[in-house]
Amino acid sequence: MAAPCPEDPSLERHFKGHRDAVTCVDFSLNMKQLASGSMDSCLMVWHMKPQSRAYRFTGHKDAVTCVNFSPSGHLLASGSRDKTVRIWVPNVKGESTVFRAHTATVRSVHFCSDGQSLVTASDDKTVKVWSTHRQKFLFSLSQHINWVRCAKFSPDGRLIVSASDDKTVKLWDKNSRECVHSYCEHGGFVTYVDFHPSGTCIAAASMDNTVKVWDVRTHRLLQHYQLHSAAVNALSFHPSGNYLITASSDSTLKILDLMEGRLLYTLHGHQGPATTVAFSRTGEYFASGGSDEQVMVWKSNFDVDYGEVLKVQRPPATLASSAENLTVSILEQRLTLTEDKLKQCLENQQLIMQRTTP
């Protein structure tokens, strides 16, 4: 049994400044800044320190669809319906370089863990990889047959995962540039995908109202959640790898316990669709955005020592290999456990659904 949580997640801050739906949020590494993008064509950088003024960055000519801080937090990438990607220095000047990345709306931007490269996804049906330095185009991945909504690097930077309106999730080898596997189980457009912090599995959100978790080594479907009553727009793994948070057009955020395969919390904060959600790098907080133009910051209050989470994620150089092996072996045991419990979890979920359905 999971240890009881000391408190439920709580709403800490709530930022107003966007003039249209919020589309994306991301925390900087040190938690001092939170970036958000909106249909109002602006990027906002909010300061977590109370009474600090936010920065409003203007430059995109159309809706901002995606935002991601570099691993160091010194750069901020954004993509837009204006077909460009901008790389910003997130300070008061808000200087940026711009490049035309695609021939249609850019839906997703994500830095590799070493900060050296950037992956973008677009309505032009391609995924592109760029060097961060001088934004040099490196290569394109083009097997999707509809808009690509999301693309992410694996934690070790060797794989790329992409999600598309062709209802597939594709796993790519960055070095060979080949599609390793296509996951075709979703019955609707796939809106979002991300890697588990261990790099061993992926979770995808879809307009079919479901979230699915696959093992990237065996390509087996590990978990399937049908808890929302409308499209799932975004998701984010807790850095411990034990929890997943989802944002849906049914206006709720849901926190899932991946070890138990069950719903932990349903949060009602937004009026109208919840469009985006992201954990901070320690998992102590998460942020959400919605069509209601609001950005909300929540305190997780999970029963976790956040310092310990960071130590696991960032082991000192001398212990890196043994710490990583230990972490991976623990996660492999957990994943095996998860596979064994999948049937039971699905049955539990059915019971929960029956109980929650009036």
Automatic annotation (TrEMBL):
This protein's record includes keyword Coiled coil: yes
InterPro entries: WD40/YVTN_repeat-like_dom_sf, WD40_PAC1, WD40_repeat_CS, WD40_repeat_dom_sf, WD40_rpt, WDR55/POC1
Placement of WD repeats on the sequence: 15-56, 57-88, 99-140, 141-182, 183-224, 225-266, 267-299
GO cellular component: centriole; centrosome; ciliary basal body; spindle pole
PROSITE patterns: WD_REPEATS_1 (PS00678), WD_REPEATS_2 (PS50082), WD_REPEATS_REGION (PS50294)
Keywords: Cell projection, Cilium biogenesis/degradation, Coiled coil, Cytoplasm, Cytoskeleton, Repeat, WD repeat
CDD domains (UniProt xref): WD40
GO biological process: cilium assembly
Subcellular location: Cytoplasm, Cytoskeleton, Cilium basal body; Cytoplasm, Cytoskeleton, Microtubule organizing center, Centrosome, Centriole; Cytoplasm, Cytoskeleton, Spindle pole
Role, per record: Plays an important role in centriole assembly and/or stability and ciliogenesis. Involved in early steps of centriole duplication, as well as in the later steps of centriole length control. Acts in concert with POC1B to ensure centriole integrity and proper mitotic spindle formation.
Subunit annotation: Interacts with POC1B.
Family label: Belongs to the WD repeat POC1 family.
Protein name: POC1 centriolar protein homolog A
Species of origin: Prolemur simus
Species lineage: Eukaryota, Metazoa, Chordata, Craniata, Vertebrata
